């Protein structure tokens, strides 16, 4: 294990809670570079629906944004591998890594050093899973603490069974893999807006994105040859706007469904924060920009070589 761990800041929390602004302000103050932990911001051309706001970054260096064409495959294992590479480069430059995003299973895989080697095969177990009803598979997901990490209702039974199989069947550990916990010491901060306030922010942002051209963005993606089914898989804005573009739903219905689904997504993100707390991760709520900047800067400046506990924001 590295005796001098690289300190990094992680900012997570529900959608529409201001994570990016916090990351940018901190990066400006401490000489940081931002790594996006957002499963959809990796795609070029998916800007309004994912809230990239790249102009806000100014001269701040950012990573894992606009690295793929829309429609290409990206996964949690690829995120883990790419994030570890980027962290290594940031460390060599002497900058402060700031990971910002709300894709919980990406963060979990990174900080808990998930192994993504192919699982040992168990044909009978696989067949048993595929024979189960969706309700039985959902129950297994809940028992494995996977239910709140993804919108499983949109996935096929085969994909759900594969996720359960990966979680339950032991994997072959890749000894040469870089281990996050051997090199990095994270401090996790999370945004914690009041629920009714967050719902209002989500609605306001949704209307703003539609006014900025989110429908046109989806139409452009379809014209570029991105399959309708792929946009459905991207969920939320891309799913419901695609249905509107294909005249499956009316505008009012699209807005209503989108608001409901985004609020549900935000609730799952909050549940993920509770998961991290229950599993021993030090979590600090952000109650104001100034307090966060002060606390995070002080923690980064401490010359310790082991885990430390910053003063909890009251």
UniProtKB/TrEMBL annotation:
Its EC number is 2.5.1.75. Its cofactor is Mg(2+). Pfam families: IPPT (PF01715). GO terms for biological process: tRNA modification. It catalyses: adenosine(37) in tRNA + dimethylallyl diphosphate = N(6)-dimethylallyladenosine(37) in tRNA + diphosphate. The record marks 103 as: Interaction with substrate tRNA. It comes from the Bacteria. ATP binds at residues 13-20. Substrate binds at residues 15-20. Residues 38-41 are annotated as: Interaction with substrate tRNA. The keyword Transferase applies. Gene3D superfamilies: Crystal structure of tRNA isopentenylpyrophosphate transferase (bh2366) domain (1.10.287.890), P-loop containing nucleotide triphosphate hydrolases (3.40.50.300). Keywords: ATP-binding, Magnesium, Nucleotide-binding, Transferase, tRNA processing. It is an enzyme of class 2 (transferase). NCBIfam families: miaA (TIGR00174). Monomer. Belongs to the IPP transferase family. Catalyzes the transfer of a dimethylallyl group onto the adenine at position 37 in tRNAs that read codons beginning with uridine, leading to the formation of N6-(dimethylallyl)adenosine (i(6)A). This is tRNA dimethylallyltransferase. It comes from SAR324 cluster bacterium.
């Amino acid at each position: 294990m590295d005796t001098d761990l690289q300190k990094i800041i992680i900012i997570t929390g529900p959608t529409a809670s201001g994570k990016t602004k916090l990351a940018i302000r901190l990066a400006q103050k401490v000489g940081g570079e931002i790594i996006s932990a957002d499963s959809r911001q990796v795609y070029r051309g998916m800007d309004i629906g994912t809230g990239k706001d790249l102009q806000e970054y100014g001269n701040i260096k950012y990573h894992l944004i606009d690295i793929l064409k829309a429609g290409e495959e990206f996964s949690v294992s690829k995120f883990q591998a790419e994030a570890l590479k980027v962290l290594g480069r940031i460390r060599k430059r002497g900058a402060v890594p700031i990971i910002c995003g709300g894709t919980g299973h990406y963060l979990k895989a990174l900080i808990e050093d998930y192994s993504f080697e192919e699982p040992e095969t168990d044909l009978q177990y696989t067949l048993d899973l595929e024979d189960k009803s969706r309700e039985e598979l959902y129950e297994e997901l809940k028992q494995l603490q996977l239910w709140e990490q993804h919108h499983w209702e949109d996935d096929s039974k085969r994909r759900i069974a594969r996720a359960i199989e990966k979680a339950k069947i032991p994997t072959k550990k890749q000894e040469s893999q870089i281990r996050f916990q051997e090199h990095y010491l994270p401090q996790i901060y999370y945004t914690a807006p009041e629920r009714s306030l967050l719902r209002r922010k989500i609605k306001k942002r949704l209307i703003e994105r539609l006014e900025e051209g989110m429908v046109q963005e989806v139409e452009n993606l379809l014209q570029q040859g991105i399959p309708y089914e792929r946009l459905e898989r991207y969920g939320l804005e891309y799913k419901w706007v695609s249905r509107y573009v294909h005249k499956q739903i009316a505008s009012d219905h699209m807005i209503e469904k989108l608001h409901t689904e985004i609020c549900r997504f935000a609730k799952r993100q909050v549940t993920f924060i509770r998961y991290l707390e229950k599993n021993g991760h030090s979590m600090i709520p952000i109650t104001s920009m100034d307090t966060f900047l002060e606390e995070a800067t002080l923690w980064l400046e401490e010359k310790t070589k082991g885990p430390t506990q910053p003063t909890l924001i009251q």
